[in-house]
Amino acid sequence: MEGRVNSEQIKGKWVILLDNHIIASGDDIKELIKEAEKKYPNKKFILAKVPEEGTMIY
Amino acid sequence: MTLSFNYHRLPNKKGVDIRTPSIPVVLKGESKTQIKVYALIDSGADISVIPKSLAEFLNLDLSGETDISYGIGGEIKVKKTRMQITIEKVHEEEYSYNIPVQVILSGEEPPIILGRKGFFDNFVVTIDETNKKIRLKKASKNY
Q1: What is the predicted pLDDT for the residue at A8?
Q2: CA of A39, closest CA in chain B: separation in Å?
């Protein structure tokens, strides 16, 4: 899942961003980071969670 | 010195604007492992919060007793520990703090949240919803 994506598909998911492009998305943080480190070694990426609509945190 | 951040905006092609009051910070535990994340600024949270999987990735100390945390959604199991957060160089300055954090063990995985204890007490925090900006000014106690 690279480049521009449909935001509906990633709501509630964790995403890895590289230069503000989503390079991976999913539910498992550790797997995502492993995947990103493998595909883009030595790059500085950022982990974020895409909020669901109407999210309430407790 | 005031640090100013635009709300984090996620890229998408459908025109659905997902913006959150989140800032980029580097999280680190006792080991060398670290990761840069977008963390949600939440004045309603007493303390910072991360999911268990991220705590495990960072090798945070999870040996403490399991506790219960209460909120409007009910109760959840948590572990209390500490982590290092760093706001990377802005105006040649780097801001680094060792803060308390609750690791969420049960229920749905929360986003990464920076709450009041350990984070807000270092800054005067302005969440400017109209202009979609967050401003952090180093705090000085007046009491």
Answers
A1: 65
A2: 16
Distance CA B95, CA B89 (A): 8
CB contact under 8 A, B12 and A28: no
Burial label, B1 (beta-carbon count in 10 A; 0-12, 13-18, 19+): exposed
Q: B64: distance to nearest CA of chain A, Å? A: 22
Bigger pLDDT: B18 vs A43: A43
pTM, whole model, 2 decimals?
Answer: 0.88
A7-42 pLDDT, tens digit each: 667 788 999 999 888 899 999 999 999 999 999 998
Neighbours of B131 (CB within 10 A): 10
Give the residue from A38, A16, A18, A17 showing the smallest Cα distance to A27. Answer: A16
For residue A50, give the nearest of B111, B103, B37 by alpha carbon: B111
DSSP-assigned letters across all residues of B68-110: EEEETTEEEEEEEEEEEEEEEEETTEEEEEEEEEEEE-SSSPP
Question: B24 and chain A: CB distance < 8 Å anywhere?
Answer: yes
